Amino acid sequence: MEKLVGAGMILWTGVMVGVEFMDAPVKFQAPALQEQRWVAMQVGSVLFRHFQKVERVFVALGTAGMALVSMNTGRNRLPRLASFGLVLASVALNHAWVAPRLYDVMQYGIDRRILKKSDVPQELRDKSASLHAWYAALELAKMCGLVGCAAALL
Question: Which residue range or ranges hold the TMEM205-like domain (predicted)?
Fold first, then answer.
């Protein structure tokens, strides 16, 4: 059972890396999307909303798996529970605090059909940069937690 739960953590990490660290940055490099920035924001908004739904399934399955494994064995219990706690805290903060505020910023750009970053008021650009920094930090923490949890399980 530990190996199955550990494999699930690795799968979650792979999905996260694919969506968050590859797909998202690459789409903003497409010339057509650079010219029509609001389209990229709309695509990103849809992508991340769907990823959050998938991530909720990972959270439910991971929590159930961790509960089963923790009842059955005491090996590496503290490291894996601490690592998974980091994952849960990161997901909770991102879903409840950061993502809703980022969606508001993106919606501003989508509603106004923003073509380039300079069309966005400086205050909103600063807010967006701060939120993106929080988002990235929490995603890196989540990735570390997932890898740590998988390592403790495998």
Answer: 11-107
